[in-house]
Amino acid sequence: MKLAILNGPNLNLLGKRETELYGNISFERYLSYLTDTYKSVSFSFFQSNIEGELITKLHEVGFSYDGIILNAGAYTHTSIGISDAIKSIHAPVIEVHITNTFSRESFRHQSYISPNAKGVIIGFGLQSYELAVQSFLLHQNN
C-alpha cells in the first residue's frame, strides 16, 4: 500500500512549536516510527508552508497512491483551493489534526476539507496519523 502524508503550514516546527499543544517530537522522528511499525506500507512525506505546493502535491500523488493523510494546518479553515484539489483526485484523503480543533478558537471549527475527505481524525496528538494509517489498512480492499 502506498500512502502519502502531506503536512501544511508550521508543521515543520513540530517538536519546537507550542509543545504544550503539539508535543516535543519532530514529525521526522514520528515518521520513522510509522515506517518501522507499518512495514507493508510505502510512505512518502511532503510538508509545505505554501498552499499552491500542497495543491500541486495532491495532484501529483492523487492518481497513483492508495491514500493520502492530510494535515493542512491553518489552510483547513481557509483553502477552497485545497478542497477543490481533493475533489479532483481519485485517492481517498483522511484529514487529520493533532489537536482537537473544536476546543480551540472558533475559526478552527470550520473545515473546507472535511466535506471532501473520506474521514476526519482530530485530537489524538501525533497518533492521529497512525489512526489514519490503520483505517487505510483496515479498509484497503473496500
Quick recap:
With 142 residues, this protein is an alpha/beta fold. It has helices at 19-22, 27-37, 51-61, 80-88, 127-138, and strands at 2-7, 42-47, 67-71, 93-97, 119-122. The chain is globular and about 35 Å long.
Give me the secondary-structure topology.
Elements: E1 2-7, H1 19-22, H2 27-37, E2 42-47, H3 51-61, E3 67-71, H4 80-88, E4 93-97, E5 119-122, H5 127-138
Helix pairs in contact: 3-4
Structure characterization notes:
- By secondary structure, the protein is an alpha/beta fold.
- It has a single domain, classed as Rossmann fold.
- The chain has a 5-stranded parallel beta sheet with strand order 2-1-3-4-5, with helices on both faces.
- The longest helix has 12 residues.
Q: What kind of sheet is the major sheet?
A: 5 strands, parallel
Task: Classify the beta-strand content into a percent band.
Answer: 15-25%
User: Pairing-aware structural class of the strands and helices?
Assistant: alpha/beta
Label the overall shape.
globular
List keywords for this structure.
142 residues; alpha/beta; Rossmann fold; five-stranded parallel β-sheet; 5 helices; 5 strands; 33% helix; globular
